[in-house]
């Protein structure tokens, strides 16, 4: 058996384990986004949205739908990897993986694959729910899929880096609660950047989630507050940078080797 075949089997095994893990506990992993996003559509779309009126030529419900889908992808891609990898550290079975001949890149790819699949499944659930509330028509399907996959990869890598540095369960909730959630809410999910003051517009340009939400909204509705090429460039820069950081930490054994 060649090295490539061995690596493929190792990746497939890890990814399969990760996917089975969150599907086995689907009530905790896949049901919450369905309930939460239904409430978002009812409260922000039906109740408040009718008072706000159209935004950028679309009803408020249609306008926020892509942002809510992206919010589900980001949250679940991140939380899947951070919870799974930290559990492996906490229960000390990560050592068995580290002493195996599996390359670190394959280990990283296996965990990220699990996070990406869960993020995309959560996004698909929200997309299906949105059909009952909106008349969403995807303008650029290929671009929509690319942005969803790349964004899920970025935040799955973020979850992996968070899990490496985490020393207890409190540490894996600090980043989602105090960094990820504020950035998501201020990333243009519920409003256009053109509605906020100039200072806030400038501050939004330093928020990476702003570029991801706008790129996804361009793919679905065909509108964006920014140049779509810049949005793709920012997503790719984060993807490459975070992959490099995660591999460096894994190779050095930071947080996982004495």
What does this structure look like?
- The protein has eleven helices and no strands.
- The chain has 258 residues and is mostly helical.
- It has one domain.
- The chain is elongated.
- InterPro entries: ABC-2_transport_permease, ABC2_TM, ABC2_TM_bact-type, ABC_2_transport.
Q: How large a portion of the residues is in β-strands, by DSSP E?
A: under 5%
Secondary structure: number of strands: 0
Oligomer: single chain
Radius of gyration: 19 Å
Distance between the termini: 34 Å
Q: Please, how many domains? A: 1
- State the helix count: 11
* Unreliable parts: none
Q: Summarize the biggest pleated sheet.
A: none
Structural class: mainly alpha
Q: Give, in order, the helices and strands.
A: HHHHHHHHHHH
Indicate the percent of residues in helices: over 70%
- Arithmetic mean pLDDT: 90
Give the overall silhouette.
elongated
In short:
This protein has 258 residues and is an all-alpha fold. It contains 11 helices and no strands.
Layout of strands and helices, then pairs:
Layout: H1 3-24, H2 26-29, H3 31-52, H4 60-90, H5 94-98, H6 104-131, H7 141-165, H8 171-185, H9 198-204, H10 208-221, H11 228-252
Subcellular location: Cell inner membrane; Membrane
Family: Belongs to the ABC-2 integral membrane protein family.
GO molecular function: ABC-type transporter activity
């Amino acid at each position: 058996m060649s090295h490539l075949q061995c690596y493929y089997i190792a990746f497939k095994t890890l990814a399969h384990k990760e996917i089975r893990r969150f599907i086995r506990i689907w009530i905790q992993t896949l049901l919450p986004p369905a309930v939460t996003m239904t409430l978002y559509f009812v409260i922000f779309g039906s109740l408040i949205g009718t008072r706000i009126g159209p935004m950028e030529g679309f009803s408020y419900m249609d306008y926020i739908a892509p942002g809510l889908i992206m919010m589900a992808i980001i949250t679940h891609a991140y939380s899947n990897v951070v919870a799974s990898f930290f559990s492996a550290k906490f229960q000390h079975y990560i050592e068995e993986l580290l002493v195996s001949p599996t390359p670190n890149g394959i280990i990283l790819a296996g965990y990220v694959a699990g996070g990406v699949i869960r993020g995309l499944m959560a996004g698909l659930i929200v997309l299906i729910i949105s059909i009952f509330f909106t008349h969403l028509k995807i303008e650029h399907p290929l671009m929509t899929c690319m942005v969803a996959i790349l964004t899920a990869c970025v935040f799955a890598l973020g979850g992996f880096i968070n899990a490496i540095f985490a020393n207890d369960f409190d540490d894996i909730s600090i980043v989602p609660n105090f960094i990820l959630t504020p950035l998501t809410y201020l990333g243009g999910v519920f409003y256009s950047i053109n509605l906020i003051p100039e200072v806030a517009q400038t501050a939004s340009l330093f928020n990476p989630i702003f570029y991801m939400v706008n790129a996804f909204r361009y793919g679905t509705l065909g509108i964006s507050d920014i140049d779509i090429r810049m949005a793709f460039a920012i997503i790719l820069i984060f993807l490459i940078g975070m992959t490099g950081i995660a591999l460096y930490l894994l190779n050095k054994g930071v947080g996982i080797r004495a």
